[in-house]
Amino acid sequence: DAGITQSPRHKVTETGTPVTLRCHQTENHRYMYWYRQDPGHGLRLIHYSYGVKDTDKGEVSDGYSVSRSKTEDFLLTLESATSSQTSVYFCAIRGQLDTQYFGPGTRLTVL
Amino acid sequence: AQSVTQLDSQVPVFEEAPVELRCNYSSSVSVYLFWYVQYPNQGLQLLLKYLSGSTLVESINGFEAEFNKSQTSFHLRKPSVHISDTAEYFCAIQTGGTSYGKLTFGQGTILTVHP
Question: Which of A35, A102, B51, B101 could be disulfide-bonded to B44 (CB atoms 3.0-4.6 Å)?
């Protein structure tokens, strides 16, 4: 357990609505990541952060934005949710020896 | 760009049989290699990793993986599986340098252990 929590754990929303997922860590890690998990695709990186206010895009960033105003929180926002964004979202931190540790995940359904 | 291929999407085996989950990668630079396990309805847990040194790495629950640079592989093995090993397994690589520690994952292999 790397002290990572995600909220909400489950969410159902409608197409076109904004959605924000929160990742919270308690151990002051510099690097944080957002992935999505879809069957047959494994996990794919959406965005990552290498410090407060320092973020960059991953391989599937279209339709997503992130913010990191303090070390412990990394927010993922879907500005206008679409059905293709139905997925399980995982947050991760980079711990010792370049190893990533994952949060419990958020299951998002967009109707 | 780097990529990871897990050669089997599903592997069914009987309890106490040996198993091998195959992982090949492609990268033009040196990499770190990881196996993660995901039990049903849970998050990902680190199973084992190769960063440097001995090419054979082991986990606490009997799995092992061998880094083969010439074949760009990092196959996961266990000599005798248990029902509790039923899970999805993900191979991942991380390139060094300025990659900011980003992971590239394979598609996953679902291991099902039958009694």
Answer: A102
| pLDDT tens-digit readout, A73-97 | 999 999 999 999 999 999 999 988 8
- Asked whether the beta carbons of residue A102 and residue B103 sit closer than 8 angstroms, the reply is no
Which residues, at least 6 apart from A2, have a Cβ–Cβ distance to it below 8 Å? Answer: A25, A27, A29, A93, A95, A101
Amino acid, res. A9: R
List beta partners, residue B35.
Answer: B48, B91
**How much helix, strand and coil, in percent to the nearest 5, is found in chain A?**
5, 60, 35
User: Distance from CA of residue A100 to its chain's centroid?
Assistant: 13
For A108, the token pair is 């998002």
A68: Cβ contacts below 8 Å, ≥ 6 apart: A32, A49, A51, A52, A53, A54, A55, A74, A75
> In one letter, which amino acid is B32?
Y
A14 CA to centre of own chain: 19
Query: What letters, b where the CB count within 10 A reaches 16 and e where it falls short, cover A57-76?
Result: ebebbeebebebeeebebbb
* B25 contacts chain A (CB < 8 A): no
Residue B5 burial by Cβ neighbours in a 10 Å radius (0-12, 13-18, 19+): middle
Taking CA–CA distances from B95, the nearest residue in chain A reads A98
